[in-house]
Amino acid sequence: MTYIPKPKLHHPQLPANKLGFTHRDYEGSVSTLCAGCGHDSISAAIIQACFELDLPPHRIAKMSGIGCSSKTPDYFLGNSHGFNSVHGRMPSVLTGANLANKDLIYLGVSGDGDSASIGFGQFAHSIRRGVNMLYIVENNGVYGLTKGQFSATSDRGSKSKYGATNNDSAIDMIAMALQLGATFVARGFSGDKAQLVPLIKAAINHHGAAFIDCISPCVAFNNHVGSTKSFDYVREHNETVNHLDVMVEHEPIVADYAPGTVELVTQHDGSVLRLRKLAPHYDPSDRIAAMTYLQERAAAGEIVTGLLYVDPQGQDLHDYLNTVARPLNELDTADLVPGSAALDKLNDSLR
Amino acid sequence: MPKQIEAINDFVVKFANVNGSGSASANELFARSILRMGVPVASRNIFPSNIQGLPTWYEVRISEAGHLGRRGGVDLMVAMNPQTWAADVAEIDPGGYLFYDSTKPMPPSKFRDDINVVGVPLTEICNREFKDPRQRQLFKNIIYVGALAALLNMDVAAIEKLIGEQFQGKDKLIAPNVKALHMGIDYAKTHLAPLGLRVKTANAVGDRIFIDGNSAAALGAVYGGATVCAWYPITPSTALAEAFMRYCRKYRLDKETGKAKYAIVQGEDELASIGIVIGAAWNGARAFTCTSGPGVSLMTEFLGLGYYAEIPAVVMDVQRGGPSTGMPTRTQQADLISAAYASHGDTKHPMLFPEDPHACFEMAALAFDMADRLQTPVFLMLDLDIGMNDWLTKPFQWDDKRKLDRGKVLSYEDLQAGKEFARYTDFEGDGIGHRTYPGTHPTRGSYFTRGSSHDRFAKYSENGTVYVENMQRLLRKFETAKKLIPAPVRRDAKAKTKYGVIYFGSTTPSMHEALEAFDAQGIHLNALRVRGFPFAQEVMNFVLEHEQVFLVEQNRDAQLRTLLITETNLDPARIVPVLHYDGTPITARFIIDKVGGLLKARNVAPLREVAR
Fold this sequence. Notes:
The complex is a heterodimer of chains A (about 350) and B (about 600).
Chain A: H1 38-52, E1 60-64, H2 68-71, E2 81-84, H3 90-100, E3 105-111, H4 112-117, H5 120-129, E4 133-139, E5 142-143, E6 149-150, H6 173-180, E7 184-189, H7 193-205, E8 209-215, H8 231-237, E9 238-240, E10 242-247, E11 262-266, E12 272-277, H9 287-299, E13 303-310, H10 317-321, H11 333-336, H12 340-349
Parallel strand pairs in A: 1-2, 1-3, 3-4, 4-8, 7-8, 9-13
Antiparallel strand pairs in A: 5-6, 7-13, 10-12, 11-12
Helix pairs in contact in A: 1-7, 3-5
Chain B: E1 7-8, E2 10-18, H1 23-36, E3 41-46, E4 55-63, E5 74-79, H2 85-91, E6 92-101, E7 116-120, H3 122-129, H4 133-151, H5 156-166, H6 174-191, E8 197-198, E9 209-212, H7 213-223, E10 228-231, H8 238-251, E11 263-266, H9 270-282, E12 287-291, H10 293-309, E13 313-319, H11 336-340, E14 351-352, H12 357-374, E15 377-383, H13 384-388, E16 390-393, H14 412-416, E17 448-450, H15 464-484, E18 489-491, E19 499-503, H16 508-521, E20 526-529, E21 532-533, H17 537-545, E22 548-553, H18 559-567, E23 575-579, H19 588-601
Parallel strand pairs in B: 1-8, 2-5, 5-6, 6-7, 10-11, 10-12, 12-13, 13-15, 14-15, 19-20, 19-22, 22-23
Antiparallel strand pairs in B: 2-4, 3-4, 9-16, 14-21, 18-20
């Protein structure tokens, strides 16, 4: 980590987005993570995605649990409220926050320990409830903050920095999310920002439970030979199914790819996802095929990345609960309290 | 011929039934009919943790004097369960009555010489009239209500009226029910003599209502402005969440759109439930969960976060018998310590102790104001006796001028006007900082909420001085809580006395009955009902004023006494525990016996012998 604070002043020519914010307005405190940590690259991708989407920073709520990944919300979107909650319990806190105000954007940041071990249940249930959120797991296959224990996403047979072998089966968070009914499922790699930024943008625009599993090598404890979550291993075994562009407004589509290799998907909010297909037969609208493909490539030792599944017309928990249009946290006495006349009537029925 | 207990408007009827046989609504009909005659009743379900087939009991105390605690003893047993026959027969007071289904002859050895046996061939009467097996089962219950009505001289018109109200909208069920009722009445009138027990029309109910504490607390949550409820099923609190759903559907659907002004989520466990509550409350909604002891145990980590990150939350704990799974369908006041100090590190949480369903309503609504004002989790401590039984209680009232008190929250306008925001800074000296809801202002008022140690600006800090200042401020906030807890209620004896008694919650009606009995005996005892934690100065004063104070509670370890001694400098020797914890509701008889005994040991002579 660095101890030098970032200067507040910045270049007057720094590009601004439609709201007049510069990139710097989306930054947070200085990261305390190790130099070269994959998580910092993800933070940078989040900053860029929010900048490019012209999001007002204060309309985003950053939620996290405990662990290296869960510390990161302090390091981006300094003008947003953040909540670093309890280990493995970000999903429930996010669910509650979302229930209180459906109008904010909820960004849940978690790690593989936080979501695949202690919080596996909460991860599962927030996805199956269809909470409208972007849920990112910064997946490094290791417990970094407690210095190098295996996590539940460590591959069987992978070796720790100190030579121990992991004998337990790995949990594939993507496979879980697909099975649990997430309506947007993607895998990214912290070392591939060009792929990751559009995935984050598309997931933020998605209405429903959006899940991104982002492989994020731990430079301190899981970047050695024998690890399946190291930079080198992931680069060598990455099977990218598509590349994504996100167009928030309906700009004319530039035909820079041969017909048949570009697929357009219009999401609930009108944003258009332009998918450049790399695996020719891969169809991101087919959940069952996505699950099969994922298993096939995993058996071949490959890590599939890209947008793996999207239901552009997803629904969310508020749709299911049929809540009023106004956020619940804006309702006041007149909206909520039935009053004394109703109570008198009720009293009469109880005699 | 055994003696016959003679009593008018002062006796106990106990129904022994089989779970799932449809007896509950018939028994409630019996109790409500007596209320309609202007005679107070106290009803209690005694039931197993099971859906069908096991024994269940319903006890009705009829008391024109208005004693609503459990009395103990049985004057009339309605023995409808062969499985528990022997124990049920044994429980009847000498001279009491046994009512049973005499369709099948029973050997004399199954009865007792010192009780009065009243047989009605219920099955035979029922089977003659009804063919469908389910109907036979249900109407048998109504037939016994009819027979009891005749035997106890009850107002038949009142019962018929109640049947009409009960089946409003399902009108075709009214006639067969009324018919079954009269089959019972006719049989009793033709074949049996009235009992020595009688119900006589009186005017002692007033405008009181008959409702359970779980429903009342749920209604209090609606009036308290709760919009988010997250819960996990657990006896005896499940009915509270279900009542909240019911009342929300009734009162909280938008009139124009039909959409919900509330969100209820059944969590995957208690951890998720309190997590959802904390998240929602952090984001400015009023949120609560309801649970029982095991749930509180599971929620403790989050409760510590709520305490330290200062997030309002309301936890309604319907206490049951512990420890562990304990006695899920029995009552205790045994979660006081686990709730008061829930979570690791130095934590403490305010608690409210409702004494009846009316107080459940009032205190539930108050809990939300307190949580928002104090920015901390607040417990409403019900128990199974209040929560799951219908109690005769004061009607609910609401002041239409009352506004929800959202506490210290900075608005967009405040921030825009340049009002200083420093999340954990004590500007007013009450220990409470100002909060902002996420999304309020584009550039001001955002902060990072964390369970790790932080300075007054919410920034991470492990500086010892900063930490201690913050922990001291939390203590000041706890002092502020004392002012928001309803003051204790004092009831002085007719003459000056060195002795006092402290009690709280569901012990209240039995304590009032015991105090009346002590009064009548010329035993002088001042009494104080504690209504919450932390304790007000009046509680300390009360103890100091008396040479000895008896603290009556429904747990083994004298938990309120522990809290009192821990949180004050009171001398433990002054506070004598009186403990009832077998899972049944405490009775006046128990209090009179124990406290009376302790007083006797201290040579406080009653003018007359204490009556049983």
